[in-house]
Write a structure and sequence with these properties.
The protein has 703 residues and is mainly β. The chain has six helices and 35 strands.
């Protein structure tokens, strides 16, 4: 996408804002619901249940509306970090992927509108997810195994990013949204615009976004040898970024369904942080089709199909010169057939097929050219009872991974492997009383090794190691069990979940004790002065993950609050959250690396009419439980944050609109802290602390 498009995106956002501002009448509309969540959209979590039930058996969370706006970061991982059970890889401010229950990489499936996202973010921590939070309308997070529906890459959990680029329901006329934002900590300047229009037969969606940041400020002095910003200062060296993109989509509605298509593009240029003068130039183009056919036969309620094609590549520039180029092109297909009810039984039978071709060309090509093909059948059934609901299902896959070597690197040789992963799961939801429910899930999952786990052989700067694959790896197997309890009484609610996952063949990077030179020479003479890398090999071990997650809300003041209703109509809620996870290599009895410490947080949320305010903290305990492989322990720290909002309803003829002004202050005390889940804390200390104090202000215009 050229610079003209970037300017157009910003101009469109400004024009949309200006148009909405012009609609302001002399007096604002009447005061709104005083609840702190009054402006949030209705939560609809469907990722963990293809039948669309709002009462999920699997632990899940949803963010949308104002709640999503106030927590939106520059990356997907940053946006979700702090959700109970969810942390982030944090390879600096530009590359951060979600971690769920201590598991990351290819054990977490990132979806876009329930379709596969094809990129290289799971291959390396410095590779960003090509999704900008500015375009997201809702995020659904499934904690725990989602392999039954989405494959072995979802053994740890699922993150579904929903942007409505293919509208699935007709709208009443035209609606839109424009966002403008600015922040002090990274000098962010961002803009986004979205417009959707529809009648009963056709819908159109258009969106565009643009974001620019400079080096992130931190509360300590750091050295920087970047050619653009050399010197010694209080910033993360080489952390600036520039991102832009957009999409167009449309849908035709029929009497018994719909058929839609979309085309989206994403472009980003950002510093890798681990090295002072290396940047990544990324581009991703995705084309998608989606359709639904209702009641095609007496015994079928509907058939839903999704197809996507993604062309992804990024180049690592060293001092401005192009270096290693990574590319990943592929197709994904998903078909779900929902059968008619058989008494109290309802369910879905599905087909999923993914095919990708990956290549890496350049000095840091530590993996060969490869092709991966996966075909799967799955079934999910639910049985309604007088006391709750039962769910059960199974999945069978055929996975083929081919290595084609590399014409420029003689370390790689052609090879091919086939795997047949199988998964099964059962779950139950029990209503104990009108306010109480219990849930439990038991799942057995298998995951086929990825291409890099089988064939890696080379130096990897992001992990500061020589990574060696193992072509003899077997399927990764795990048994997962969780149990939860939920209580809700009006605005008061509380949820707690405990889980345990045992892996019979957990594939991880394990140090071998050897070192290799940049040319592949094993255990070179230290006196030679040649750069050497510690060798880490992909190896299957027995592992165990155990943890606890909890969240709740108590209404302190207002309707049905413990203090009664305030005379002025204001509402005050106390939101609580906390989690802990322990992960152990059972073969060595050592901790697994990069596991989040115990976390505890609380937020006071106040609302009165169009005004809202939030003040809270997140305390992270010290993480001293680290393996003896060079991992660094981290100190305890507490991060405080606050937010203020003001919403004005406006009217343009018969069309209602609203303006949301907001301000968010992060890390109020400017605390110096390092993430226990970031590999940079061990491999590039002290280059990448968490961001320091930052004020973000924004305006969102909706009509």
């Amino acid at each position: 996408m050229n610079p003209a498009f970037r300017r157009s995106a910003v101009s469109a956002a400004i024009l949309a804002w200006a148009a909405s501002s012009a609609l302001l009448s002399p007096s604002l509309a009447s005061a709104q619901d005083a609840s702190p969540d009054a402006q949030s959209l209705k939560e609809v979590t469907v990722t963990g249940n293809p039948l669309g039930s709002s009462d999920l058996i699997a632990p899940a969370a949803t963010y949308s509306g104002d709640g999503l706006t106030l927590r939106r970061g520059t990356t997907l991982g940053d946006t979700l970090d702090g959700t109970p059970g969810v942390s982030a890889t944090y390879f600096g401010p530009n590359a951060s992927r979600p971690i769920i229950r201590g598991q990351d990489g290819d054990r977490i499936r990132v979806l876009q509108n329930s379709g596969a996202t094809l990129d290289a973010s799971a291959l390396s921590y410095d590779h960003a997810v090509p999704i900008d939070p500015l375009t997201i309308e809702r995020i659904e997070v499934l904690r725990g195994p989602g392999a039954l529906q989405y494959g072995g890459s979802a053994v740890g959990g699922v993150v579904n990013v929903i942007d409505n680029r293919i509208p699935t329901e007709p709208l009443d006329g035209v609606m839109g949204r424009a966002d403008l934002g600015a922040a002090t900590g990274n000098h962010e300047r961002s803009a986004g615009v979205l417009v959707e229009g529809s009648n009963d037969r056709f819908a159109l969606h258009v969106d565009a976004f643009d974001r620019h940041t400079q080096d992130v400020k931190v509360p300590t002095d750091l050295d920087c040898e970047n050619s653009a910003t050399p010197g010694f200062g209080r910033r993360i060296c080489n952390s600036a970024s520039s991102t832009h993109g957009g999409a167009v989509g449309g849908t035709l509605f029929f009497d018994h369904g719909y058929l839609g298509a979309s085309a989206a593009t994403y472009r980003s240029s950002y510093g890798t942080v681990a090295e002072d003068d290396v940047r990544i130039g990324m581009q991703s183009d995705r084309y998608a089709l989606e359709g639904l056919w209702r009641n095609p036969m007496d015994f079928i309620q509907n058939i839903k199909a999704q197809f996507g094609h993604t062309s992804y590549e990024h180049t690592e520039f060293e001092g401005g010169e192009p270096g290693t180029r990574f590319a990943n092109d592929g197709n994904d297909l998903r078909v779900e057939v929902r059968h008619a009810r058989l008494g109290p039984l309802e369910g879905v039978v599905g087909l999923q097929s993914d095919a990708t071709r990956f290549s890496a060309v350049g000095e840091e090509a530590f993996v060969p050219f490869s092709r991966t093909r996966s075909d799967a059948l799955f079934i999910h059934e639910e049985l309604a009872t007088g006391w709750g609901r039962l769910s059960f299902g199974a999945r069978t896959e055929q996975v083929k991974v081919d290595s084609f070597g590399n014409p420029d690197v003689d370390r790689f040789a052609p090879d091919s492997h086939k795997f047949s992963p199988h998964s099964a799961a059962v779950g139950a939801l029990v209503w104990l009383a009108p306010q109480w429910q219990l849930t439990s899930n038991l799942a057995y999952t298998e995951r086929a090794p990825k291409d890099y786990e089988l064939y890696a052989n080379g130096p990897h700067v992001a992990t500061a190691a020589w990574e060696t694959g193992d072509a003899s790896l077997k399927k990764e197997r795990s048994t997962n069990f969780d149990i939860g309890a939920g209580w809700k009484d009006g605005p008061h609610k509380f949820n707690v979940n405990a889980y345990i996952s045992r892996f019979g063949n957990y594939i991880g990077l394990v140090p071998t004790g050897d070192t290799l030179s940049g040319e592949g020479e094993r255990n070179p003479d230290p006196a030679s002065g040649e750069e050497a890398f510690p060798e880490y090999a992909y190896h299957g071990v027995r592992a165990r993950f155990t943890g606890l997650e909890a969240s709740g809300t108590v209404r302190l003041l207002g309707e049905r609050g413990v203090a009664g209703r305030a005379a002025d109509g204001s509402v005050l809620d106390l939101d609580l959250r906390g989690d802990l996870v322990r992960a152990t290599n059972l073969d060595t009895n050592e901790p697994l690396p990069r596991i989040a410490p115990a976390r505890l947080g609380a937020t006071l949320a106040w609302g009165e009419g169009p005004w809202g305010a939030r003040l809270g903290f997140d305390h992270l305990a010290a993480q001293n439980r680290v393996p003896d492989d060079g991992s660094r322990a981290t100190d305890a720290y507490t991060l405080w944050k606050a937010a203020f909002t003001y919403r004005a309803k406006v009217q343009a003829g018969t069309t209602p609109a609203s303006l949301l002004w907001y301000a968010r202050l992060d890390n109020i005390t400017d605390k110096l802290a390092y993430s226990a889940t970031s590999i940079l804390t061990s491999t590039a200390f002290p280059k990448a602390p968490l961001p320091g104090r930052s004020l973000k202000i924004g305006l969102q215009a909706s009509f």
